[in-house]
Amino acid sequence: MANEIGTTDALVSLKPKAEWALRGDELEWLDSVQTEPTTAELAAEVTRLQSVYDGNAYQRTRATAYPSVADQLDSLYHNGIDGWKETIKVVKDAHPKP
């Protein structure tokens, strides 16, 4: 896990625009409109968000493996659309979707 999803991420996901303060593990709920999520709801959301993040690892790996935009444009100019597609296909094949 390259990125650890935490309570802050879960709060933002579950209760967008809510007012709260998190000091260490202590949550102070300041919002009078939205209800405070339970500990179980927060834990479940952390698990869900981490799963989504982990499931998209191939996207992050691909993003760093693609040639720069300048190199892609150069490939397109010199090799045409088919040459460019082959360049991209190599990366996609090396880092497939799960």
Explain what this protein looks like in three dimensions.
- The chain is mainly alpha-helical and 98 residues long.
- It is 61% helix and 8% strand.
- The chain has helices at residues 7-14, 39-55, 57-65, 69-94, and strands spanning 20-23, 26-29.
- α1 (7-14) packs across α2 (39-55).
- It is elongated.
- The chain starts with 6 loop residues before the first helix and ends with a helix.
- The relative contact order is 0.12.
- The mean pLDDT is 94.
Uncertain spans: none
Count the DSSP helices. Answer: 4
| Helix-strand pattern | HEEHHH
Task: Specify the helix fraction band.
Answer: 55-70%
SSE diagram, text form:
Blueprint: H1 7-14, E1 20-23, E2 26-29, H2 39-55, H3 57-65, H4 69-94
Provide a quick synopsis of the model.
With 98 residues, this protein is mostly helical. It is 61% helix and 8% strand.
Summarize this structure as a short list of keywords or feature phrases.
61% helix, two-stranded antiparallel sheet, 4 helices, 98 residues
